[in-house]
Amino acid sequence: MDLRIGQGFDVHPWSDDPRRRLVLGGVEVAGERGLDGHSDADVLSHAVADALLGAAGLGDIGTHFPDTDARFRGADSLTLLADVIERLRADRWTVGNVDTTVILEAPKLAPHRAAMEDRLSAVVGGPVSVKAKRAEGLGALGRGEGVACFAVALLVR
Ligand SMILES: [Zn+2]
To answer: Where are the alpha helices (DSSP H) in the chain?
Structure first.
């Protein structure tokens, strides 16, 4: 059995635009300000995509979906993630599992965690776990200036 591991990281600052929605793992967290970014700024899905691409040796999300490309403006990141999975499947990879840690001061993710795990698992075709962690007041994340996410992924073929 061929196994490959990958890690991904992403970070987005909060947006000043009141029209932007907060989307994490494909789940809209209603009533919260959104993150700034070219796509929907789904920091969780982006970290997962980079972990998967890294494990498969297929570059990174910026290579496949450049933020200079107007096609990806406001893009649904679950669609991008599904595209990544297609590329993996073309190389006969399946997802063993994905584990993630979202770093943010607020809002609390616990009420949305199961929905995020369900949506991400359905797209990647393997179990995805979502954990949340505060930065305890340290640095930009601790001051609540944005949201970061770490992800690791295991691929099997
Ligand atoms: Zn991103």
So the answer is: 43-56, 61-64, 77-90, 113-124, 139-142
